[in-house]
Design a protein that fits this description.
This protein is α+β, with helices and mostly antiparallel strands. The chain has three domains: 38-131, Immunoglobulin-like (Sandwich); 137-176, no CATH class; 182-221. The chain has seven helices and seven strands. The protein has a four-stranded antiparallel β-sheet, with no helix packed on it. Strands 1-2-5 form a three-stranded antiparallel β-sheet, with no helix packed on it. A hairpin with a 6-residue loop joins strand 6 and strand 7.
Length: 222
Amino acid sequence: MIAMKRIFLLVFIFLTSFLYQTKVYADMCSVDVIHQYDSLINNVDVHYEYLGEFPNSDNGDFPTSKYHVIISGLINGLYVVVDDDSRVNSTYFGSDIPSGVVEFDMFVKDFDVDIYLDDCMGQIAKTISIHLPFRNMYASDERCSELSQYHLDICDEWYQGDLTYEEFLKITDPYFVVEMSNMEKVLSFVKKYMVFFIIGGVAIVVLIAFLIYRHYKRGVLE
């Protein structure tokens, strides 16, 4: 009797497992099936708008670039997951969003928007990768304003290089070498050869004095 119960239990477990696996595989979609929905999947779009620099508690309240993110094109039968390793409640079902548009604000970072079909269990149909750029904090530096005619990359608002302020100063310093005026150049030349000018000046004075004396002496003799 006990043996029969064990046999029935094993048969029950086997059938339950078989039926569950059958359901899972039925819910999984082949690439060809997913391609049938390409027009709907490709209609999902992600764009963003720069809002400005705001204190970020995750960054020690340091001003950080903030964006308004808009996901559009969601319809019944699709859902998306915003994967940025931090957002909570980041799954959005098209069936719950009549407008098909999801909006939220986010500080600068990289994130993925994974698109799924309701009928394909946990199978990503498409991923849209988004890079929210940092605004270049040196773009508003006074130096960049003074050097605007040079159109320096490091002064571009969306320059993405990782520079310390010391490196920024080192790059911009050469542009602040002031060209000397003509008068400054003359004074610099005179200062450099001052000794020769003094000797030459003394020689000219002595020569003029000698000529005057000679002319005067000749007139007296006549």
